[in-house]
Amino acid sequence: MKLLSKFLLGLMLIPSGLLCNPAKIHASQVATQWYFGSWDCNIDGRSAKMQWLVVDDPQISCSGDVCSTTSGVKVVGKFSDNGGPWVPLAKLSANPTSLSIRYLGQEQNNWFLRYNVNSRQAIGWTTWREKRYPLSCANRRR
Hints:
By secondary structure, the protein is mainly β. It is built from one helix and ten strands. The chain has one helix spanning about 1-20; strands at about 35-45, 45-55, 60-65, 65-70, 75-80, 85-95, 100-105, 110-115, 120-130, 130-140. The strands form two sheets. Strands 1-2-5-6-7-8-9-10 form an eight-stranded antiparallel beta barrel. It has a two-stranded antiparallel sheet with strand order 3-4. Strand 1 (about 35-45) and strand 2 form a beta hairpin.
């Protein structure tokens, strides 16, 4: 009787698993923000580049022999100073006209950009060793 109950329960679960498969979300489906994309920047007189990209970020979790995958996306930022290596950036906060950034290089610090909708440029500052330096960026999709 126990075996029959497990078999019937299994038959009920298989179709429900097929019918309840949630849709996946891909990076291309995320609403864009003003700071997304590739930027040409000037950091204290030096040329630089900044990028903010939305990438797929699937998560896999397992409990014993049973694993599940969750679809998701994340925003990834990076910065290259004067042709140097790309360094990760983290978004601390953002709104329609400003972006607070955490530079995740060897000497981590906070940066800030204010976006001008008319000029499509962002102007703000970086910090290094507790001193502020000018930062300005123009989006390449202009």
